[in-house]
Amino acid sequence: MKKEILLKYNEITDFNKLSELEQKLMQKAMESAKSAYAPYSKFNVGAALVLENNQIIIGSNQENASFPAGICAERVALFSSHANYPKEIIKQIAITAITQNFELSAPVGPCGICRQVLLEYEEKQGSDIEILLFDNKKIIKLAKTKDLLPFYFNEDRLKQQ
Ligand code: THU
User: What does the angle CA 101 – CA 78 – CA 62 come to, to the nearest 5 degrees?
Assistant: First the structure.
């Protein structure tokens, strides 16, 4: 039997269509990307998430001469958020990237590990985390992390069904 998965998302080119908070979140993600520590890949990523209490938490990728020791921007923001505000709901995360070597042609999506980490918090808090992937021309708005991760793995799989 053939089955299909349908993904619905918004593509926005008019930045004024976003709320003030979304624009602020994107501004913070962009600022964060500028201060990423990415001397090896020269690929700067910035993330900014907003909590239910309207607190904004930022993250940028942090690299290391021992390459696998580095960590993505999204996880820096998510882990920092959950370490400091473990009970707060994460409402939305904005993600952007700038390369030091060339211009990116489209918004960048989070890597697989970061999708999994987003999913963990989405499941834990029991409410969706909206995702804004953006560059200077376009915003891709997704309603929830699960949209980025079909056939996802979660804690239920660790238990006998
Ligand atoms: N990177 C992120 O920060 N987030 C992603 O979702 C994709 C990749 C970082 C990791 C590494 O420092 C650089 O981008 C190149 O892969």
Answer: 35
